[in-house]
Design brief:
mainly alpha
Length: 66
């Protein structure tokens, strides 16, 4: 338990976040900058379900995200 069993899903989630936030793999940024980008480009834009809709942990993030 508590371990991601599908690397494909993780890579897909990461790629979607990077694409929606306009970032590139390997970019370096602060946690606050990443959080702000995710909030603006994913959460506030209503894209949460399109990124994480099939994640078994989504209820934890969605509750925290609002």
């Amino acid at each position: 338990g508590g371990v991601c069993e599908s690397q494909e899903k993780v890579l897909r989630y990461d790629a979607a976040v990077l694409r929606l936030c306009g970032l590139q793999s390997g970019s370096t940024m602060t946690w606050s900058s990443l959080s702000a980008a995710v909030a603006g480009h994913i959460l506030e834009a209503g894209a949460f379900a399109s990124v994480c809709g099939d994640c078994s942990w989504r209820s934890l993030c969605h509750t925290e995200a609002g």
